[in-house]
Design goal:
By secondary structure, the chain is α+β, with helices and mostly antiparallel strands. The protein has three helices and nine strands.
């Protein structure tokens, strides 16, 4: 059995996909308390705990509630860098560069603000200087903690970030929509019943 010949089928699938993505994003933002509720793990710095390509769900956390400690005790936090460009698109927020998800191995309160020392489970050294708590990540740059993840489900999110993949998918969709229409026109021209 070949692909469906009706372009409405592909359009319906595409619209249903968009509705699912927007609905999931809206609900996850409301439940998580953060504008960055879902993310895909791009590197192996948290392996084997969280594999590359995993889809992570992020929940807002306060400095008081954050648990710091070595693996597996400390919370895995998602944080962004000081000069990060943040752009909001209705239900989506884009961070450039992409935030990191590393374990909170220590925290300290300085003048009423919590600072977090982070480290990837697979990394040898912490991300900041352990001897200088003021160089640690302040809680206002912590988007939240990872509350669960699904291995490999993050790969589609990573592929969408690649402009070549997006262009290739659009070309394939256009071909799948135009090709059946072209066949219908040629059938009509041949006098065949439609």
């Amino acid at each position: 059995m070949g692909p469906p010949k009706d372009s409405k089928f592909f359009l319906t699938i595409f619209i249903a996909y968009l509705m699912i993505v927007f609905g999931l994003t809206f609900v996850s933002r409301a439940v998580s308390g953060t504008n960055f509720p879902l993310s895909a793990v791009q590197s192996g710095s948290m392996e084997p705990t969280i594999p590359t390509g995993s889809l992570i769900f992020v929940q807002k956390v306060s400095g008081e509630d954050l648990v710091a400690g070595d693996n597996p005790v400390g919370d895995v936090v998602v944080y962004y860098f000081p000069n990060t460009k943040i752009t909001d698109y209705f239900l989506f927020s884009v961070y450039d560069p992409t935030p990191w998800s590393h374990r909170a191995i220590d925290k300290q309160e300085i003048n009423g603000t919590f600072y977090v020392l982070t480290k990837g489970d697979a990394n040898r050294y912490p991300d900041q200087s352990p001897l200088n708590p003021s160089s640690w990540v302040p809680m206002d740059r912590v988007l939240g903690k990872v509350v669960w993840f699904v291995p490999y489900l993050g790969y589609p999110f990573l592929w969408i970030k690649n402009p070549f993949v997006v262009v290739a998918v659009l070309i394939v969709l256009i071909i799948l929509i135009i090709l059946p229409e072209g066949e219908k026109k040629s059938d009509k021209a041949d006098g065949a019943p439609v």
